[in-house]
Amino acid sequence: MSYYVHELPGRLRIRIPSLRKNPGDLIKLQNYVEDFSAVNSTSVNEVTGSIIINYDKNRISSRQIMRHLVHEGYLDVTEGIISRKGMTQTVGDIGTAASRVLVGIAIERAFQGTPLALLASLI
Q: Which H/E stretch holds residue 44?
């Protein structure tokens, strides 16, 4: 499974293949994310299985949002995380930033509760 992540300050788009044409779970995800006090609005697309999250970047980061999604099982960091397209975008470092977020989450989960967790937080 391959996730697609696109990030701009205050705006996060995540495409989750398992939510494609799965309106029930997509609405559950939307309701879950909208409960975050720093989230201003969301938009979901059943055809692509994607969610756009508009948030207050001064109150929450994309990394924190993605951590919550990993914790709730919406994202699986053990599988293919970022599409090549997301990794090779030349406009800014959007793909690189998104991959750092997800790699940081994966490392953090792998070494949770160990001294290496400190190193993971520095990524």
A: strand 39-45
Contact 64, 78 (CB under 8 A): no
Contacts of 17 (CB under 8 A, 6+ apart): 1, 2, 3, 49
The rounded distance, in Å, linking the Cα atoms of 49 and 22 is 7
Q: How does DSSP classify residue 113?
A: T
72: Cβ contacts below 8 Å, ≥ 6 apart: 32
> For the chain, give me the number of helices (H) and strands (E)?
5, 4
**Per-residue pLDDT in tens (0 to 9) along the chain, 123 residues:** 567 788 899 999 999 888 888 889 999 999 999 999 999 999 999 999 999 999 999 999 998 998 898 888 888 766 544 444 444 443 444 556 666 666 766 666 666 656 655 555 555
